[in-house]
């Protein structure tokens, strides 16, 4: 394996804590801390100016013990093998916590999509897929969207793979357009999952969700749907911020109007239904629930001491630094970790894959009912584990994940 970097090291730190509590045997420990497969490819693309550029792409299948690797593909100038490997490991634990039959994978291409034309992006996507074609497939590895990739990129991946195997294969990727075998309810799935675990946490803590004050950082896919659905079950969304600024209203924001405003203006900043709020001031608000749903490393020791919320639901991946997390846990803040809180997205991706393989598609209600059941089960598994071992929910989520992958690894035995 290539040298570990600091992102993979951060994953290992979380893993080790849980593995020690579980008294995991050294052999399984070693297996679960090594990526199964790391693929590096060079993708030549003829650019619009006639020049040929070569882009580096990665696909890591961290662990495929429970099923095909599952995880997104990101297009970003900062993509590295270290980052992709750590993200693939996190997907392994997320799928195991969600209790779906997938392993963990992740992919990325080092590129700046903001400076590329649609034709260049299509050519790059198709070449990348051609380079990793033997490694992916419905039974092997099922990519999905991530940073700077979307439904259109998934459609190109599905088409390229299908052309290579000689028949239409919808189940090779998830996050596809509905017309191409996507699932109803997938777009809202992560936010819906955030709403469900927040509601369950409030119930556990004896906090009435009706009228509970909620602040949300990020008003994209995850943040906006979380806010809208929590509003629907009676919570009061008092604050929302995004990349540009934010808005506060102690009586509660009108989320539907805010959504229309954000769609038109591409920001919630200067929304007339409240007063201006900065990202820095969001953290210290007098609220019951705080939902970071934007970027990683947002809750740090600079702002964690100011947090008054009883529940922090990590809609984003990695929004809380380890020291801030420790601080919040010690103060009794109920932090619902990312690998549980935002697992609604991958759970409905699993439903999409199931529907594609069946060739039979569910009504949206059925998707939502099944998601609700899976999220409640996952929340209960993690909560009971945290009570049993007297640990925070993040460590508990790792314990659940490591136990599941470890048990199957032991049962399958060593092939040598
Ligand atoms: P998105 O691009 O739709 O929205 C991101 C939001 O964050 C936007 O409102 C943006 O304005 C805001 N933002 C960006 N920079 C900011 C800054 N510096 N300060 C405050 N706000 C900022 O993305 P998304 O799909 O909603 O994803 C958000 C997070 O959730 C990411 O960490 C992502 O990895 C994670 N996640 C998403 C899904 C999914 O299904 N979309 C699933 C699991 C995890």
Provide a concise account of the structure shown.
This protein is of the alpha/beta class and 416 residues long. 46% of the residues lie in helices and 17% in strands. Bound molecules: nicotinamide-adenine-dinucleotide.
Core attributes:
416 residues; alpha/beta; Rossmann fold; seven-stranded mixed beta sheet; five-stranded mixed beta sheet; globular; binds nicotinamide-adenine-dinucleotide
What does this structure look like?
- The protein contains 14 helices and 12 strands.
- The two termini are 19 Å apart.
- The chain has helices at residues 6-22, 26-32, 81-98, 118-131, 151-165, 186-205, 221-232, 255-265, 279-282, 322-330, 338-341, 344-358, 364-389, 393-412, and strands at residues 37-46, 52-63, 69-76, 103-110, 141-145, 213-217, 236-241, 246-248, 275-276, 289-292, 311-313, 334-336.
- The model has no long low-confidence stretch (mean pLDDT 97).
- Among the domains are: 35-170, 3-Layer(aba) Sandwich (Rossmann fold); 189-341, Rossmann fold, CATH 3.40.50.
- With 416 residues, it is an alpha/beta fold.
- The chain is globular and about 55 Å long.
- It binds nicotinamide-adenine-dinucleotide.
- Residues 190, 217-223, 241-243, 279, 293-295, 315-317, 342, 345 line the site of nicotinamide-adenine-dinucleotide (NAD).
């Amino acid at each position: 394996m290539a040298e570990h970097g600091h992102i993979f090291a951060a994953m290992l730190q979380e893993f080790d804590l849980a593995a020690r509590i579980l008294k995991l045997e050294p052999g399984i420990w070693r297996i679960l801390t090594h990526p199964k497969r790391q693929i590096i490819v060079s993708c030549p693309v003829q650019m619009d100016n006639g020049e040929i550029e070569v882009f580096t792409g990665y696909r890591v299948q961290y662990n495929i013990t429970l099923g095909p690797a599952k995880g997104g593909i990101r297009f970003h100038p900062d993509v590295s093998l270290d980052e992709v490997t750590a993200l693939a490991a996190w997907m392994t634990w997320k799928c195991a916590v969600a209790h779906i039959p997938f392993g963990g994978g992740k992919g990325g291409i080092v590129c700046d999509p903001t400076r590329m034309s649609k034709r260049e992006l299509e050519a790059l996507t198709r070449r990348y897929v051609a380079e990793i074609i033997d490694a992916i497939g419905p039974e092997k590895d099922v990519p999905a969207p991530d940073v700077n990739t979307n439904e259109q990129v998934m459609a190109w991946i599905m088409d390229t793979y299908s052309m290579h195997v000689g028949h239409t294969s919808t189940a090779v990727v998830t996050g596809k357009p509905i017309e191409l075998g996507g699932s109803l309810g997938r777009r809202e799935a992560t936010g819906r999952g955030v709403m469900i675990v927040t509601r369950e946490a409030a119930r556990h803590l004896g906090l009435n969700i009706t009228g509970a004050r909620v602040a949300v950082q990020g008003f994209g896919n995850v943040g906006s749907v979380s806010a809208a659905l929590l509003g629907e079950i009676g919570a009061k969304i008092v604050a929302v911020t995004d990349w540009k600024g934010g808005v506060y209203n102690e009586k509660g924001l009108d989320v539907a109007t805010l959504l229309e405003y954000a769609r038109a203006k591409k920001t919630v900043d200067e929304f007339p239904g409240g007063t201006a709020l900065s990202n820095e001031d969001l953290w210290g608000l007098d609220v019951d629930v705080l939902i970071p749903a934007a970027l990683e490393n947002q809750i740090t020791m600079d702002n964690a001491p100011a947090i008054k919320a009883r529940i922090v639901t990590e809609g984003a991946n990695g929004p809380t630094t380890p020291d801030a997390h420790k601080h919040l846990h010690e103060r009794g803040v109920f932090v619902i970790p990312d690998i549980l809180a935002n697992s609604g997205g991958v759970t409905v991706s699993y439903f999409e894959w199931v529907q594609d393989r069946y060739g039979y598609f569910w009504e949206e209600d059925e998707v939502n009912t099944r998601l609700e059941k899976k999220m409640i089960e996952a929340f209960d598994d993690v909560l009971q584990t945290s009570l049993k071992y007297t640990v925070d929910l993040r460590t508990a989520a790792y314990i659940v994940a490591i136990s599941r992958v470890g048990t199957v690894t032991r049962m399958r035995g060593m092939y040598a």
